[in-house]
Amino acid sequence: MSKVFIIGLPRTGTTSVSVALLDYGFKVAHIGLTKRAFEVADVVSDVPCFCDYPQLDKLFPDAKFVYIDRPLDKWVSSIQMLLTKMKPNLLEKTGTFHPILKRSFKQTFGDINADNLLDEARLKACYLRHQQGVFNYFAQRDDLLTITLSEPDSLTQLLRFIGVSENRINASLNHSFPVLNVGTHVASWGEHKHPNKVNTNLAGPEHRKFFDYKKLGLSH
């Protein structure tokens, strides 16, 4: 099957989409930090997909992309909470997060140490810039689906887009996405147990190496 990349920003529902697809037989990585994770997974969401979609499009030319839209006011309050929690570990020199995760957030939200990092207008501008970048990149193409998780038919739209049969869709007991990571909770993916989950840092023949975009001529 074609790879599926979920390219909505953090706090738009990437975890909910990732968990929902596990039950349809897809191998899913919520965040992919190694080549092997991308090779093994059918679906990869969140970091670094939301900023590396042009590179992934070249690496996986048959892939499908899913953009998650969320009402801005709800997203802003949620991302403010997440950035507040994550900021110490996102700092370039002292932060403990993986370099790819740091890069993805810096590319999307700018200077993590900025005094106005949590400013509402600044974050809305980041969201809209990312959204417009996605829409411009995929203009006149049929391999991007835009969904809003709160809409009642959004899961069905997604399943059809990625090739799940109508019989399987109709037989499903769940016709909406699970509601996860509510409020200040951010660990739903780690808490969810499922055999189809793919390790974010999955090692392969090249150990935990990521794609070398420069060597491949795909630099940012």
TrEMBL record:
It comes from the Bacteria. InterPro entries: P-loop_NTPase, Sulfotransfer_4. SUPFAM superfamilies: P-loop containing nucleoside triphosphate hydrolases. Signal peptide: none annotated. This is Sulfotransferase family protein. It comes from Shewanella japonica. Gene3D superfamilies: P-loop containing nucleotide triphosphate hydrolases.
